[in-house]
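Hey, why these numbers?
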Amino acid sequence: MFRIGEFSLIAQVSGRLLRFYDEIGLLSPEYTDPQTGYRYYSAGQLPRLNRILVLKELGLGLDQIARLLDQDTSSEEIRGMLLLRKAQITQAMRDDLAQLQLVEARLDQIDAFDRTPVLDVVVKTIPPQRYLALREVFPDVASVRRLVVQMTAIVPHKMSASSLGQIAFVIHSRTFDPDALDFEVGYLLTGSPGNAGKALATVQLSEERILTVRDLPEVEIMATLAHAGSITDIHRSYGLLGTWVEQQHWQIVGQGRQVLLQLPQPNHDDAVIELQIPVSKTATSHTNMPQEI
């Protein structure tokens, strides 16, 4: 058997923690000398101590840990709990990394406004188009990505490749809310609006999701800018395009769109997305703009 200091070294936990667990009855010494009060532990107590530490890492309270130990929870059950906790930690790390990338992108955007970038803004007319799509409110960008993956896996097998154009998004959200993205997602169809997509009016992705064909109206003047790279940086391109629109004395007059010019490769941020904002000339100046009350 080992005295408390020796057992502390073997178990790699502090003597203070061992004394605390003894006080609350969670892990008592195997033997306590009645004359000296010295605590003695055995190597056979290591499995119980390890279970206590594991359950503590899972975020359980000491009373919950005591109940689980009294119920003799199996190693397989604890392993399952650990795997669940591992998944939660992994997701938290991904969320933190995404947040870090967003912060870095915002810092880069601040630096970009101190420079004078050369923008390849193209102003063009977008003709009427047939659109095979569905509209949904998505809780995050990852959900939009998953739908695109589902579409690319199913739609090309149900329609001829010659009738499918690029994947496009119509943005119905009146304001940007990352937790409620009101997007219409689908394929632009080739051919004239009167003919394209007539062979197949709907495509079922799942029991709940059905793509239907509709007409996208013509947009006489669309200001466009290609964004290349990570979707987390897309606000930079929107900021530059918005600045250009303001400098040209245009005003936004309808729903924006995004067209996927290049799909991202798996585990890569190499998408190319054309940002489209419908605009018109405005004679409004700052002097005659209505004032907020």
Observations:
- Residues 285-293 have pLDDT under 50 and may be disordered.
